[in-house]
TrEMBL record:
Signal peptide: none annotated. It comes from Actinosynnema pretiosum. This is Type-5 uracil-DNA glycosylase. Residues 1-47 are annotated as: Disordered. Belongs to the uracil-DNA glycosylase (UDG) superfamily. Type 5 (UDGb) family. Residues 14-42 have a biased composition (Gly residues).
Length: 287
């Protein structure tokens, strides 16, 4: 897919309440004006993940999500009343040479939307980072703030929707509006990326269309399941990509026992092997 062309378009009906005037990522404009603050517009020209992450952080393309993330940041949860919330889109976390990607759903209102880093400061992150540390994909099991010293090892964590949505439910239009960010992220990771762990059915369904620039997604599309493993051949002449399905690490799934840390570790270990990362904890390049 031509990321630059897609990123430059304007889409009607972007998000619930996000119809007229909603601009897509990179569509240009000023802060508060409904577009990306840097006025870029051509995501295909973004040279690397640091620049992409910077642009993501300023995106205002979905009016409903912009209003929600900022309202949450203003009102705050009582326990975090003395903290400055991030209140912006949360970019991916991890190095540009990642061989393994973990794809979730969207930032949590009082987790990533508060701390500014994926799965940081919430119950989901406690499970995910504990598992990643256990299998050697993170240097520590805790994730509490952007300056807590956490580093990913050969991995990057991202999401198809980069703003916290009400009730953790982005609309299909918001998902589609955010897709160019994910597509460009995948293109920049393409030289090294070999495996993906997808957390939950929403992430699975959202990721598949974003993969088609580099890999072939069969029809009918493979279905999400915990433990699913699907190898996608390359469509660009490069190496294949292996998808792994894992239940989302949400509090609901872990508190009900549907998902345990051991189950997450098992999926991550299989994906790590497919990614060609070393079996020893700490192997892989720092993220
Ligand atoms: S969800 Fe994505 S496209 Fe929508 S405002 Fe946030 S970063 Fe921009």
């Amino acid at each position: 897919m031509d990321n630059g062309r897609v990123a430059g378009r304007r889409v009607a009906g972007a998000g619930a309440g996000g119809g007229a005037g909603a601009s897509v990522p990179g569509g240009g404009g000023e802060p508060g004006g409904g577009g990306a603050p840097d006025g870029g517009g051509d995501l295909a020209a973004v040279p690397g993940l640091p620049e992409l992450d910077r642009r993501v952080s300023g995106c205002r393309a979905c009016p409903r999500l912009v209003a929600w993330r900022e309202e949450v940041a203003r009102v705050k949860r009582a326990a975090f009343r003395d903290q400055d919330y991030w209140g912006r889109p949360v970019p991916g976390f991890g190095g540009g040479d990642a061989r393994l990607a973990v794809v979730g759903l969207a930032p949590a209102a009082h987790g990533g939307n508060r701390t500014g880093r994926m799965f940081t400061g919430d119950a989901s992150g406690e499970v995910l980072y504990a598992a990643m540390h256990a299998v050697g994909l993170a240097n520590q099991p805790e994730a509490v703030s952007r300056d807590d010293g956490l580093r990913l090892l050969g991995a990057r964590i991202t999401a198809p929707v980069k703003c916290a949505p009400p009730d953790n439910k982005p609309t299909p239009a918001e998902r589609d509006t955010c897709r160019p960010w994910l597509e460009r992220e995948l293109t920049l990771l393409r030289p090294t990326l070999r495996a993906v762990v997808v957390l939950g059915g929403f992430g699975w369904q959202s990721l598949l269309p974003a993969l088609t620039a580099h890999w072939t997604v069969p029809s009918p599309r493979p279905r999400f399941a915990h433990g699913a493993r699907v190898e996608l051949p390359a469509s660009d002449g490069g190496p294949p990509l292996v998808l792994h399905g894992c239940y989302h690490v949400s509090r609901r799934n872990t508190q009900t026992g549907l998902l345990t840390v051991a189950m997450v570790e098992e999926v991550l270990s299989r994906a790590k092997a497919d990614a060609g990362l070393g079996a020893e904890p700490g192997a892989g390049s720092p993220g």
